[in-house]
Design a protein that fits this description.
About 35% of the residues lie in helices and about 10% in strands. The protein contains eleven helices and nine strands. Strand 6 (about 125-130), helix 2 (about 135-145) and strand 7 form a beta-alpha-beta unit.
Length: about 350
């Protein structure tokens, strides 16, 4: 039974692991991906994964998340489109769930992850690590299952979705649903290039603006035009080409229904819901918590991490990653985040591998 009242009787979870689980299970570490990530957090491209792992520089032998020490688990989230049950999965009638897929929340996703831990024989995580949507799940882990997390590293997120975050997600969802090829979400089986490709591309472009910073955009692109295209003659500015590229790139690999399901799950994020409010919920935390944020993050600004630090019993302040890359800094600033992870996880202070 899901938090909003829906039901999924059979759930498949896709996950990847690195390292070896200790006989007593004490070295298990959970890595949680962001909105358009998946279980392939580290490693080279391969079947089902066209690109290198999204935290490849941070996970591996001798890396900040050291697979010589830890048994690392990264699951694809409930509602995803990379192997875990989601809108493109068969529903009870054998057809893809599509827009019929029930409402899921961050809390539901963590319940599924807890079931995965049970299946793997992991009673308690040595650490749970996540940023952005993965950070939301890390917050839910330390509140919903406080006895099952020894340490958490929570990056670039807050205790609840803010009004602006909800607004940005909602506009992206609307862009997908307004695509003429949306077809009420029943676009599976469409010819190549069919489905709401344009709507998903536009949604990603909107998101990409919020993921970076104004300063970075101005320094990288300014008012430059794309190649020899002259904007006054109908050509594009370089920033327009950049957004178009990232939108099209995502639309070619990601499912539009999943983008909606996960965006709305993020909008529902509120660790205090049904728990007496945020302060009362965070007072439950037993884990040692390391908090980090990016100096230029305008989507999940540092004030949100400071709020967590004020309310979580075992969270000594906020580690600030100095970067002009905005929210995406948690995926880009490997050196800075690697140092934070090494301190949090007690590893050696050797540099991040490249």
């Amino acid at each position: 039974m899901l938090e909003a009242g829906g039901r999924l009787d059979h759930v498949i979870v896709a996950y990847e692991t690195w390292g070896t689980l200790a006989p007593d299970g004490s070295n298990a570490l959970l890595v949680l991906h962001a909105l358009t990530g998946d279980s392939h957090a580290a490693g080279p491209p391969g079947p089902g994964h066209a690109v290198v792992g999204w935290w490849n520089e941070l996970i591996g032998p001798g890396a900040p998340i050291d697979t010589d020490r830890f048994f690392v688990v990264c699951p694809n989230v409930l509602g995803g489109c990379q192997g875990t049950t989601g809108p493109s999965s068969p529903g009870p009638d054998g057809r893809p769930w599509a827009a019929r897929f029930p409402v899921v929340t961050i809390r539901d996703q963590v319940v599924v992850e807890a079931a995965l831990a049970d299946r793997l024989g992991i009673e308690r995580w040595a650490a749970v690590v996540g940023g952005s949507m993965g950070g939301m799940r890390a917050v839910e882990w330390v509140v919903g299952f406080p006895e099952r997390v020894e340490h958490a590293v929570i990056v670039s997120v807050g205790a609840k979705a803010t009004a602006e975050e909800i607004a940005l997600c909602s506009v992206q969802v609307q862009a997908i649903r307004l695509d003429p090829n949306w077809n009420g979400g029943d676009y599976y089986g469409a010819a190549p290039g069919g489905g709401p490709h344009a709507g998903l591309s536009t949604a990603r472009s909107i998101g990409q603006i919020s993921y970076r910073s104004e300063l970075e955009f101005d320094e990288r692109f300014g008012r430059d035009h794309q190649g020899d295209e002259e904007p006054l003659g109908g050509g594009r500015y370089a920033i327009e080409s950049y957004l178009e590229y990232h939108g099209d790139k995502l639309a070619r690999r990601f499912d539009a229904n999943t983008y909606i399901v996960l965006s709305e799950a993020m909008n529902h994020h509120d660790v205090g819901r049904g728990r007496g409010g945020i302060a009362e919920a965070l007072a439950r935390v037993q884990a040692q918590v390391t908090l980090a944020g990016v100096s230029s993050d305008r989507l999940y600004p540092l004030r949100l991490q400071h709020e967590l630090a004020e309310l979580i019993p075992n969270a000594p302040g906020v580690n600030v990653i100095q970067s002009s890359s905005g929210h995406d800094g948690f995926l880009i600033e490997h050196e800075a985040l690697g140092r934070i992870l090494r301190r949090a996880l007690g590893g050696p202070s050797s540099p991040v591998r490249h």
